[in-house]
Amino acid sequence: MHLSCLKKQTGVIVLCLVANLLFCQTKKVALNFNYMFGKNRLVLNDSTYQLERNNTIKFESLKFYISNIELLENDVSIFKEKKSYHLLDADSIYKIISLTLSSKLKFNKLKFNLGIDSVTNVSGALGGDLDPTKGMYWTWQSGYINFKLEGKSSLSTHQKKEFQLHLGGYVYPLNTLQAIILPIGTQNKITVLFDLQQFINKVDLSKQHHIMSPSAEAMHLSKLASTCFKVE
Amino acid sequence: MKKLFFCLVIVLILAFKGEGDLFFIPKYWPKPLYNFSNNPITKQKVFLGRVLFYDPQLSKDNKISCASCHSQYSAFTHIDHALSHGIHDSVGTRNSPALMNLAWQNLFMWDGAINNLDVQALAPISHPAEMGSNIIEVVKKLNASKYYRELFYKAYGDSIATGEKTLKAFSQFLVTIVSANSKYDKVMRKEETFTKQEENGYSLFKKDCTSCHKEPLFTTNNFANNGLPVDTFLNDFGRIKITNNANDSLKFKIPTLRNIEFTFPYMHDGRFKKLSEVLNHYTNGIQKTKTLSPELQQPIILKSNEKVDLIAFLLTLTDKEFIFDKKFSYPKHN
């Protein structure tokens, strides 16, 4: 390569960097989720929790999808994550969702969906977090499981005291997708808490220990789950 | 440079010609419903899908493949079995549907439980009375096989199998299973002519059957209650199970009539062995319930000689080239 050519190239790169600094500075906002049982971090499998009237409960699995993450300023959307589908698993708490946006942008609300939208539900085989091998896709009736909670409780009337709540359904009037909006500051690290105690206290496991298809109960529990998020 | 461009054009023409051989839209057929832009057809992916379709390793006990209940010589259904059966000789609750022209369908299964061809294979793979496995196990088995790693590499440029890639390869093979070369098709293309009896049968068909079994696919893809009494052992009420809508009680998917000669027994539970029984149901067996198809509210009247003519027409929907096409048969390892 000629020296002049090299100089020219270096010049272009420097110019680009300067332009980038002046006009398109970006920042990263890290979003992560913590799973709580009341004031304590949720522990799967090993911890037995007390419920009302001396009942006990043990959780084996908590997984759910969040999708279409947005940041809002005064209810106006200023950032939308592209291809925004994330499977969250209480078993792996270190998943951080990194959002890259212009550093000038200010925001005061976080918006996301609990679950997968109807268009994606009818879009065939998808990859990444949406791959059916993730165990969050129904096989006998097409559709994503938006929210999955499994475990054992003395309250369950099932013979093995098990409970399996698989909440999903994308067709009206049993569309379980929930939009969630939480107030936040313009911060670079957002931690969202999901309080399972708040959820399970309102579920009657003696009646609802197995939900495996779209239904009115699945609708009701999806709405309930959507109220259990808050920003730390 | 010019030479290079010329070569490129030739390569492109050959490539497209190759894929045209794999999937084509017959003349006068409607636009397919399958979204090809999400899963463009290639020879290597179709082949991978074909190998998967014929592979019994996909089942829990390595004995049942898709082809076990969808064999080519019976237009990809399970001949002589009213209800499909799977691993450990377990018996299902419905008659396995014949597979053909799947790119022109948008809902699958007798009750439309499956909303996209890509995710159809999940159902039989996971059903305890069919293949008794699951997609996680299947992908594990594929990744453990040298042969499949090679096939995935050829198809996707990456030897690692995923759920998405496996399911899309299935769709690739399934959409190529097109039946459009029956005598009926040849008559429509003016290459052959109907006999007098077939012609008479065709007129009767257009009068009494076509509103649900619409040409050229011989289905509207809708769901209908065709007046079958409920089997009190199976207690199958069809589409209502999926939609929870009372208006869908006793409705089942309207099947295509193409290759009907080979797809017996008939109906969602395989209750009729012969075409004459099917016609007798429509003339004499309709049970009136709230959701009965509007087309069947008035009785269909056919004399016995008319039934014979109608059957003669239905037999013109047989596509022997399809039944014996080597493109769809058991793939030899190469």
Produce a short descriptive summary:
The complex is a heterodimer of chains A (232) and B (334). With 232 residues, chain A is α+β, with helices and mostly antiparallel strands.
Q: What percent strand of chain B? A: under 5%
Give the CA-based shape of chain B.
globular
Query: What pattern of helices and strands is seen along the backbone of chain B?
Result: HHHHHHHHHHEHEHHH
The beta-strand count of chain B equals: 2
Can you walk through the features of this model?
The complex is a heterodimer of chains A (232) and B (334). In chain A, 18% of the residues lie in helices and 40% in strands. Chain A has 232 residues and is an alpha+beta fold. In chain A, the strands form 2 sheets. In chain A, strands 3, 4, 5, 6, 8, 9, 10, 11 and 13 form a 9-stranded mixed β-sheet that branches. In chain A, strands 1, 2, 7, 12 and 14 form a 5-stranded mixed β-sheet that branches. Chain A contains 4 helices and 14 strands. Chain A is globular, with a radius of gyration of 22 Å. With 334 residues, chain B is mainly α. Chain B is built from 14 helices and 2 strands. Chain B has helices spanning 2-22, 43-53, 66-69, 117-120, 122-126, 135-143, 146-156, 163-176, 183-188, 196-208, 240-243, 275-285, 304-314, 320-324; strands spanning 223-224, 252-253. A two-stranded antiparallel sheet of chain B has the order 1-2. In chain B, helix 2 runs antiparallel to helix 7, helix 2 packs across helix 8 and helix 10 packs across helix 13 (304-314). The longest helix of chain B is centred in the N-terminal third of the chain and has 21 residues, at 2-22. Residues 10-17 of chain B have low confidence and may be disordered.
